[in-house]
Amino acid sequence: MKTAYRSAIIFLVTLFLFGSGFTPAAPTDTLKVAFIGPDRNLYTWTSAGGTKKIFDAGDLNDLRISGDGSFIAFTRHDTEGRIFLWMCNFDGSNPHELMTREDLSTLKTNADSTSAGPVNLRWIPGTHTLTFTSYEIFDGPGMVLNDDLITVDGDTGEWSALLKPHHGGVAAFSPDGKWMALSTPSNISIMDVNGIPAPGPGLDFPAVMTYSEYQYYPEPVWASDSSRLAVFIPTDDPMDEPRGKSSIWIIDTVGSQPVRQVQITPQFIGPVTIAPDLTKFFYIREVGNPIENRRELRTALINGANGFTVFSGNAPDVFGWAPDGNVFAFRSTMEDPITVSQMNGSIGDLKGTERADWFKWVDSNRFLFTRVTDDTVELTLGDRKEGNQLLAALPVSTYFRMLVDFVQ
User: Whole-model pTM?
Assistant: First the structure.
């Protein structure tokens, strides 16, 4: 009798809630994912709405979501090689052009180039201001950056050159949105977001020989409190014998001299990956007879102390630190699952990540990765505790795989 009475109550409550138009609360997950599929169209995913195609053009090439998840900026490349900068709302509404090919062409500095394009699309944290560095477009391979800095107001569409060529660089913004580190092939400097230099000196270094048509641009890592950054600078000729020493430096925003933390000899120009808390790092180094092609994955504190070999074997793939800086991810071979490791050794594998070709931590437990099967490209949201969720599986393309960005 009691069971029947309870069932009747549940039925009446359910009838009232759903019959009266009441909608259950949507999932509270704030993760927003945007990606360009192999078809070069724009898609989004949320836990509440699933995966949606929001812009169907077949010519997208790059994208970046604003920090608040409102806007998606993206570039388009037409069949004639022309580049355009566009933007839309996250739901796909209000798609519009921010900079035309003619606008971008005004940024070129080389008479032999055909136009200029945007690289390193970044939104200044806490704002709707999009930034990028321009590069010269030639009829051939290679990429020559102009080391400028262009800003675009996402609300008004107005754009301007905040820093002229050779006075800017590739920008990495501090978490509080007040500072930017500007990288060039021979210098790291800090400015505020209005282009005013920080009180301290930057860091000059010899240009790095990359043995390719591309120049080396350092990638600074900001501390969470935005007071300082760490940056890895390779030796100027990483193939020279005997091998030279590379360095990790700390630069702050208050005017102190840059401080070298450690000198190491990694394989070629890295990867050397600094943890988000700037207290530790990992890197790959060559060991043994060169013809054996053996590598070690090493961890250490930022000053080089407490060195530890996490992995030894063929050259591994590395995927970076989780945002909390407690674990990082690597893989011994493409056929193997991605491994989660701490400073002193591995603690487990991420199931289902075999043959992943792109991986990024979302938080300390979740991660996104892509994988190419025989006929599809898959995008998956993984969780160390709860397993994996397939977000999209799209037909393979010969010329484009998938490009992903996310905020939460």
Answer: 0.90
